[in-house]
Amino acid sequence: MSDDELVIVSIEDHIAIITLNRPEARNAINGDVAQAMESAMDKIEEDDSIWVTVLTGNGPVFCAGADLKAISSGQVASITTPKGGFAGFVKRERSKPVIAAVDGPALAGGCEIVLACDLVVASSAARFGIPEVKRALVAAAGGLFRLPQSLPKNIAMEMALTGEPISADRAYLFGLVNKIADEGQALEMAKELAQSICVNAPLAVRESRKIVLETFSANSEELWKLSGLGMAKMVSTQDFMEGPLAFIEKRAPVWKGK
Fold this sequence. Notes:
11 strands, alpha/beta, 2-enoyl-CoA Hydratase, Chain A, domain 1, 2 domains
């Protein structure tokens, strides 16, 4: 991939690495980035050999959010896509887990991109915030309802009303961040986390992710039903036979994703 691309995608084994690549603009999202992100996610969802995605940013800032130049010139609609919403990502329906590797500030829409991911690895240089109120804006890309799903209500409310960011350590303390890395090492640690997911059956991972996400909207009866359906789907897969067989034969399983 060329370094002048706004979104760079590379593949390592079963892991896709998406890199936001506008370091001179603090990886701010404009229309071209949003379209490139949606295209990248399309390809990842369609490729059965990709099981986990890591999303990161090039440079000292993960993502500063929307490109204010695009907004001030009336191009608000361009930074969203029909399928993915803001950045071509935050509303995206997908089946595979995404890990955010945050090595620097993730602010405004950048924070909302992180919140749309499934897991978060942050370096000590990371900060998370939705400062939209400081500019007479509203964090409309999911931040105002996803923050309270990831943080205690009063902490989320503090961030929404003051616009002030929190540190990586504080985000880790409250459960927004899964792992803390040294500065410059978030991507490597995120890859390690991705690898620990890839040792598991990919279809079972996707079903498990789906059911966990449903806990925010479904009732107990619906969740029991979804769990049963998820298990039923696994029984009909090739990998369902491979798991117990590998255990009996005392070897690592060889997953087909089928």
